[in-house]
Specification:
The structure holds 2 protein chains of 2 kinds.
Chain A lengths: L23 H22 L32 H36 L4 H15 L2 H11 L6 H25 L3 H8 L4 H9 L4 H25 L9 H13 L4 H28 L7
Helix pairs in contact in A: 1-2, 1-10, 2-3, 2-5, 2-8, 2-10, 3-5, 4-5, 5-8, 6-7, 8-9, 8-10, 9-10
Chain B lengths: L5 E10 L9 E8 L4 E5 L6 H8 L9 E9 L2 E2 L5 H7 L4 E4 L13 H12 L4 H14 L5 H6 L7 H13 L5 E5 L7 H18 L2 E6 L2 H7 L2 E6 L2 E7 H6 L4 H9 L9
Parallel strand pairs in B: 3-8, 3-9, 6-7, 7-8
Antiparallel strand pairs in B: 1-2, 1-4, 4-5, 9-10
Helix pairs in contact in B: 3-4, 4-6, 6-7
Chain lengths: 290, 268
């Protein structure tokens, strides 16, 4: 059977690329993210970190065999709390990423397919309004307005994070709908909603997956920041709350909370950024090199 | 009228905002008879593709393109149907093949998924029967290894293979009319001949009439009985291919024959 690799002189031929082409740096990022996902899963499943609130030791115990990272001012185990906080960060990151990406994909597909229609104009207007307000100010205001509700943070972030994904998907859909395979699908009698879901959106997966990774990083950072300000996590488990406590402790020479919250945050965000860079290279259909 | 399958009456298309007053298709009329291969020849930009897209109502707009006239498929005017009814006709009764096989298949799905999607859209078949039909269509397009071709993604296949698959997709639901818009222009000459032959064979088996659109009079001469010559949005000549080559009546027909760089006899 004749199989010839696609190489045409005229322009770009879509190639399906996959995560298997992740470069070594991207693989390091993937491993870091996987380790944090494991820690977060353990926190959700109750394998560790359940007893973080128990104050059964003296204040500011140094790291040792019983308390690996020492204790805080109330005598709570810092290690258990940071493990549990990893779960909180991941939960916010995943929920916000999934919802914001779905919303962005849907809105982007609609405004790209019906570009320059009243629908497109309305979606662009909403995006412009959301984007014109300084991001942290808007998130903080929404979270403040809904304070007490454990989902306030999620709502605030989903409402603001979808706009960038929506814009990128819109541009790609405007390009894709000029492609001959979309015209071919129409000529075979496929209705527009089916073409959008089956043929247009699957061709934006490279954008969606990279945007999802970026959104995850933004969501984790925002969760920590909002919790630090006191309008985020309400249940005491967040790196942001640990950092808020450490503002007092660092002056007293106690770095337990500060290091136990900021180092994992830094490593997690680094891992995700490495993964995002790797994904951008691996999934970009325009890169010809492997 | 019983001898006419598809009848185009007074079809006019103009593109809005193109800055030209001249319509892209200027009140043309022609008939396609059951089972025949009708050629439509003309230079680039003369309105050939616009005609085909207008028949399937695939032009964007209005705003964009504005079409008027009648397109009678066995007496039923396609211009008056709603989108949902048109979607029942597209691919089932009238199909279209496009010029560029490199971009006419979706890169993220394999060949089998795309073929089965068309079958599922128009025919009530269980999955095994749909698979069997897909395999059979590829065999009839003389693809040597249909099983592995069904699992292949478009980028793994050559241009000729892809165009065979696109033809199979267009004919899988046994449409009555096939609009072939420059089906072999993007392919090399040797592949061109064999694909056109397989296209004619399969269309004949399915009982589909074909409107073969090309800028290449050689392609038309070798594959059609009758032929329309289009020039600046108008049909300037309609004749049997032999008569056209022997005694072209319009100056543009003569120009096409002369510019093809071959003696008319060499087409035979």
């Amino acid at each position: 059977m004749s199989r010839v690799a696609a190489n045409t002189a005229e322009g770009f031929v879509p190639q399906s690329r996959s995560i298997e082409h992740l470069d070594p740096v991207g693989q390091i990022g993937l491993v870091i993210v996987a380790v944090f996902l494991l820690i977060a899963s353990g926190a959700w499943l109750g394998w560790w970190g359940q007893d973080w609130a128990a104050a059964n030791a003296g204040r500011w115990e140094p790291p040792g065999a019983e308390f690996w990272l020492g204790t805080n001012i109330l005598g709570q185990d810092i290690l258990q709390r940071t493990l549990q906080s990893t779960g909180s960060a991941f939960e916010v990151g995943l929920v916000v990423t999934v919802l914001a990406t779905l919303l962005g994909a849907l809105m982007g597909a609609l405004s790209g397919w019906y570009s320059h229609s009243w629908l497109d104009e309305s979606i662009l207007w909403i995006q412009a309004v959301i984007d014109s307000i300084p991001f942290y100010l808007l998130v903080a205001a929404l979270a403040f307005a809904m304070r007490g509700n454990p989902w306030a943070m999620h709502v605030a972030m989903v409402a603001t994070f979808w706009t960038i994904t929506g814009r990128l998907v819109r541009a790609e859909v405007m390009r894709l709908k000029q492609q001959e395979f979309v015209l071919a699908a129409k000529s075979l009698g496929l209705p527009v909603p089916l073409i959008l879901v089956r043929h247009v959106l699957p061709n934006t997966v490279h954008i969606l997956s990279i945007q999802a990774a970026i959104t995850f990083v933004a969501a984790v950072k925002a969760e920590v920041l909002l919790s630090f300000l006191g309008i985020g996590a309400q249940d005491g488990v967040s790196w942001g709350l640990m950092l808020a406590e450490s503002t007092q402790e660092v002056l007293a020479g106690q770095f337990g909370n500060f290091l136990a919250a900021s180092i994992p945050l830094f490593v997690l965000l680094l891992g995700f950024n490495l993964l995002t860079d790797g994904l951008a290279d691996a999934l970009n259909p325009r890169r010809s090199g492997r | 009228m019983s001898d006419t399958l598809l009848s185009v009456r007074d079809l006019a298309v103009s593109y809005m905002g193109s800055g030209q007053d001249a319509p892209a298709v200027d009140h043309i009329s022609f008939d396609i008879r059951p089972g025949e291969t009708l050629g439509l020849v003309g230079q680039s930009g003369c309105g050939k593709s616009t005609t085909a897209l207008a028949i399937l109502r695939l032009l964007e707009g209005p705003p964009g393109a504005k079409a008027s006239g009648q397109i009678l498929l066995q007496g039923r005017d396609l211009m008056t149907l709603d989108e949902a009814t048109m979607n029942q006709i597209r691919g089932r009764e009238v199909s279209m093949i496009f010029q560029d096989p490199m971009t006419a298949l979706d890169p993220v799905f394999n060949v089998g998924q795309q073929l089965r999607q068309v079958i599922a859209r128009h025919r009530k078949l269980n999955p095994d029967a749909a698979d069997a039909l897909a395999t059979q269509m590829l065999e009839r397009m003389q693809i040597a290894d249909p099983e592995s071709t069904l699992r292949a993604y478009p980028h793994q296949l050559s241009g000729g293979m892809r165009q065979r698959i696109i033809i199979a997709m267009a004919l899988v639901c046994q449409p009555k009319v096939l609009l072939a818009d420059e089906p072999t222009t993007a392919l090399d000459v040797t592949t061109q001949a064999s694909i056109l032959q397989q296209l004619a064979q399969l269309a004949g088996d399915c009982g589909a009439a074909t409107l073969l659109i090309s800028h290449d009079l050689g392609v038309i001469a070798n594959n059609c009985d009758r032929c329309l010559v289009m020039y600046r949005g108008r049909i300037v000549e309609s004749a049997a291919v032999d008569d056209l080559l022997a005694s072209p009546s319009h100056h543009h027909s003569r120009a096409l024959i002369e510019n093809s760089g071959q003696n008319a006899d060499e087409y035979r």
